[in-house]
Amino acid sequence: MSLKIRLARGGAKKRPYYRIVVADARSPRDGRFIEKIGTFNPLLAKDAAERVTLDTEKAKAWLEKGAQPTDRVARFLDAAGLLKREARNNPKKAEPGKKAQERAAERAAKAAEASEAASAE
Questions:
Q1: Same domain, 14 and 67
Q2: Residues 24 and 47 in one domain
Q3: Range of the domain at 71
Q4: Are 67 and 1 in contact (CB under 8 A)?
Q5: Does residue 56 form part of some domain?
Q6: Which residues face 24 on adjacent strands?
Q7: pLDDT tens digits for the chain (121 residues)?
């Protein structure tokens, strides 16, 4: 049985509220869970103390048992000092794709030809 520490959505439409739960990876997002270990209210200010509540003892116990946190929960655990999360770094994220680079090269070549033709006149 693969265990996940993840968010289960609650609250009304357009008013999300999440429970931080330990659940079997095969169970539905908002379905059956083993234990609730905290809450997350994204509507509160980022510096509000009640935004994320987490029972660190339970979280530590489940991590020792092999439960894998999702990305968002890993951020919460990192902020609580329970887990060291590697910062993601994707230097190629802002670069355009191959075809866009080819089109830009074509445009630059045409602009260079046009400037040469204009200077030749």
A1: yes
A2: yes
A3: 3-80
A4: no
A5: yes
A6: 3
A7: 799 999 999 999 999 999 999 999 999 999 999 999 999 999 999 999 999 999 999 999 999 999 999 999 999 999 999 988 887 788 888 888 899 999 999 999 999 888 888 887 6
